[in-house]
User: Which sequence fits this backbone?
């Protein structure tokens, strides 16, 4: 199985919608803060739960987002400047 960013179907979709592709490490915490500051807590919330179908999963994700306090996002936005530093250093390590 190919990683999603190299899969033929993904590449076709990106070409169809003319998205610009920015090369960077797929799992860099400095380039993808959502992986660590949003999807981690969501994964924790969904962990161990079983869903009958996609609609049930979507409903649970929406319910989780609707219950988040505004500070959840504000606190995580604070980390975004590190992304710009990493880009300026061409992906080199950033000491915080």
Assistant:
């Amino acid at each position: 199985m190919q990683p999603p960013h190299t899969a033929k179907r993904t590449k076709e979709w990106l070409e169809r919608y003319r998205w610009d592709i920015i090369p960077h490490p797929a799992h860099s915490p400095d380039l993808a803060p959502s992986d660590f500051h949003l999807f981690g807590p969501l994964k924790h919330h969904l962990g161990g739960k079983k869903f009958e179908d996609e609609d049930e999963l979507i409903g649970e994700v929406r319910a989780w987002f609707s219950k988040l306090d505004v500070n959840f996002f504000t606190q995580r936005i604070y980390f975004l400047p590190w992304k710009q530093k990493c880009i300026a250093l061409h992906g080199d390590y950033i000491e915080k």
